[in-house]
Design a protein that fits this description.
GO terms for molecular function: DNA-binding transcription factor activity; methyltransferase activity; sequence-specific DNA binding; zinc ion binding. One of its GO terms (biological process) is methylation. By secondary structure, the chain is of the alpha+beta class. The protein has helices spanning 9-17, 58-63, 82-95, 102-109, 113-124, 128-146, 151-157, 163-174, 178-189; strands at residues 28-31, 36-38, 52-55, 67-68. The chain is globular, with a radius of gyration of 17 Å. The termini are far apart. The model has no long low-confidence stretch (mean pLDDT 89).
Length: 190
Amino acid sequence: MMGNNNLSFEEMWEKIIACDRKYDGLFFTAVKTTKIYCRPSCRSRKPKKMNVEFYHDINEVEKAGFRACKRCQPEVEHSPHVGLVRDIITFLLNHYKQNLILKDIADQVGLSPYYLERLFKQETSETPRTYLEKIRIDKAAHLLKCTGLTNLEICYEVGFQGSSNFYKVFRSLKDCSPSEYRKELQNELD
């Protein structure tokens, strides 16, 4: 059974609106009005926010009386390594604030660092490091949107060890600096 993740309701909502595949299997979106549950990446029409519940385990959502979506088939695991990759992603989500090295992650799931990186890349098309950076930047974007923390405070809050790497990774993933990102959000609200 998969462990709980660090995502708030708002963050999970953002992931389903973005149809973000990297969160598939970490949580399920259950729609109270239709009694159907989906993967975060499901391309079906999005429900109203008030009609959504999130579950972290497929058994929980089914026990609550929801049935699987026929479009995204959340009950089907498409690879024999899905469970292992899901465990790695859950570990990354729960420990993203820490200074992680590949060996830490490999020790957690009982694989060699080399095999872990190869398997993870085969399943997700990314290395654990780039995946972790994306999680950190997603968290940073959420904090920029929802808090008044400074960019430097956010940098350390999401697990980056230095501001230059934070700014470089943020710019490469969001095509703007953290300050520009916050300014764009302010302009959208005005």
